[in-house]
Write a structure and sequence with these properties.
The protein has 270 residues and is an alpha+beta fold. The protein has helices spanning 2-21, 25-45, 50-70, 76-88, 92-105, 110-121, 131-139, 141-145, 148-171, 175-202, and strands at 207-210, 214-215, 233-234, 238-245, 248-252, 258-262, 266-269.
Length: 270
């Protein structure tokens, strides 16, 4: 009986804490409006006073972050707006991290793709991919350059086109129809293979972004290990997570080099 009472009390406390921390829909809406107003105000005064602009952009970030944390909101447009605010503040790490989060939720959004690409060009580190990967990106450009949404659209168009022409071919005996059907069907297979490859490669893979302005990569999960590189890594550098151990993560960079970083220096894109 004692244990039952304790359990009920614990559940009540947890419920009260959750009710206290969570924002209502009205509160979230108010904070989002305030964040948008602060962001716009910052843009308007940027040419006159950089200090006032920064103050407004920081207010926008604080409100967006609160909605995400306390309102438990998972929304691509929200992450996109937060990324823009961080970009205005010159925080490339958090900007890219939030653009990447937005990309996962709204992969077809052209503005997300454009702003992410622009933020990447403003990063300090320029880590080149291996030549073999560059060759693959050239040969299979549609897989690497076409957004997932565009590949899905092409798959539907080519498959429907092949089916429609297949029906027409039953009535109209033309050799060019047969050739066109084969080409469209092959294109549909190529797009389907590309989408499946993306799905399998992304499954279980965790990516991340360095958010510390500067951090030394280590050869092990401690400051006592030697540095992995002569120069430190900087905010905005993206990576693939290999392992987590305590307060350290092992990462793989775009050039396939690996190192260990403290967890407070990175954000993982879940």
């Amino acid at each position: 009986m004692n244990m039952f009472i304790k359990t009920i009390c614990l559940l009540c406390i947890l419920f009260c804490i959750n009710a206290y921390c969570a924002l209502s829909h009205e509160e979230c809406t108010t904070l989002l409006r305030e964040a948008e107003r602060c962001f716009d105000d910052g843009n308007e005064v940027a040419a006159v006073s950089h200090e006032r602009a920064v103050e407004n952009w920081r207010k926008a970030v604080a409100r967006y972050e609160r909605v995400i944390k306390e309102g438990a909101v998972v929304n691509g447009a929200l992450f996109y707006n937060l990324g823009n605010a961080y970009f205005r503040l010159g925080d490339m790490g958090n900007a890219i991290a939030n653009f990447r989060r937005a990309q996962r939720l709204i992969p077809r959004d052209a503005n997300v793709q454009k702003n992410l690409a622009y933020a990447r060009r403003n990063c300090q580190d320029n880590i080149q991919e291996p030549e073999s990967r560059k060759v693959l990106k050239t040969l299979f450009f549609w897989h690497y350059d076409f957004p997932l949404g565009l590949r899905e659209l092409l798959f539907v168009i080519t498959l429907c086109g092949a089916c429609f022409l297949g029906i027409v071919r039953l009535k109209v005996k033309r050799s060019w129809l047969t050739a066109t059907i084969v080409v469209l069907f092959l294109m549909a297979i190529v797009m389907a293979t590309s989408m499946l490859t993306t799905e399998l490669s992304e499954r279980g893979t965790i990516y991340g972004v360095i958010v510390a302005s500067e951090v030394e990569g280590r050869k092990g999960n401690s400051e006592s290990y030697d540095k992995s590189f002569q120069a430190p890594l900087h905010a905005g550098t993206e990576f693939r997570l290999l392992e987590s151990r305590g307060n350290w993560v092992e990462i793989q960079l775009a050039d396939n080099q690996t190192c260990w970083l403290p967890t407070e220096a990175v954000i993982l894109i879940q």
